[in-house]
Amino acid sequence: MNDNSKVVVALLAGLAAGAALGILFAPDKGDETRDKLSQSLKDLGDSIKDKAADEINNLASLKDKVVDSIKTKLRSVEEEYSDDVEHA
Fold it and tell me: Model-level pTM?
């Protein structure tokens, strides 16, 4: 394991320990803490779904542009080929 990996693992372990201690020593009751955590995770999930939907729409738009571009180029080549065949 290189030094960067060790630093990242130590950082993640520290974050996990800090989060666990924060939850254990939080002034709220366990039910309230779980509710807050559940709501935070739900909000995060909704945010991820929204961003994924936006990216899917962006990809669909990009696909449409690429398909239109290819169709335009194919028509152009087809017209050139037809002209060449007529003049031959």
Answer: 0.50
CB 26 within 8 A of CB 33: yes
Give me the half-sphere count of Cα atoms (radius 13 Å) on the Cβ side of residue 27.
0
Euclidean distance between CA atoms 76 and 81, whole angstroms: 9
High-pLDDT (> 90) share of the chain, %: 23
29: left (phi over 0), alpha (psi -120 to 50) or beta: beta
Cα-Cα end-to-end distance for the chain = 69
The answer to whether the CB of 59 falls within 8 A of the CB of 51 is: no
